[in-house]
Design goal:
Order of helices and strands: EEEEEEEEEEE
Structural class: mainly beta
Number of helices: 0
Largest sheet: 7 strands, mixed
Number of strands: 11
Radius of gyration: 13 Å
Helix content: under 10%
Shape: globular
């Protein structure tokens, strides 16, 4: 069982930046990791993924503005968010799933961290 703890959310003005961190209680080697978000009144949506083999992917809404990275030595992964927009306001969840388990339903989830972007 892997526990994920997020940090780094907060309030920022439009155009600003934030970096979210997600620290795992165990190794993330051979795990796919990533981020989802849930805006008020909307379903949880995919944001970014960092596959166990090093490939990354982003939703169209954040591509070019957000960057996912990971440090396996620290059991931690990150989401650097630049050029933030009010529509990025949401609760952000980190997630991880072991190799062989589908990313569509990650096995492990963080508790969520609020990101609010003011206009």
């Amino acid at each position: 069982q892997v526990q994920l703890v997020e940090s780094g959310g907060g309030l920022v003005q439009a155009g600003g930046s934030l970096r979210l961190s997600c620290e795992a209680s165990g190794t993330l080697i051979r795990h796919t990791v990533g981020w989802f978000r849930q805006a008020p009144g909307k379903e949880r949506a995919f944001v970014a993924v960092f596959l166990w083999n090093g490939a990354t992917g982003y939703s169209d809404s954040v591509k070019g503005r957000f960057t996912i990275s990971r440090d396996n030595a620290k059991n931690t992964f990150y989401l650097q968010m630049n050029s933030l927009k009010p529509e990025d306001t949401a609760i952000y969840y980190c997630a991880a799933t072991p190799l062989g388990s589908g990313w569509s339903d990650p096995r492990y989830w963080g508790q969520g961290t609020q990101v609010t972007v003011s206009s």
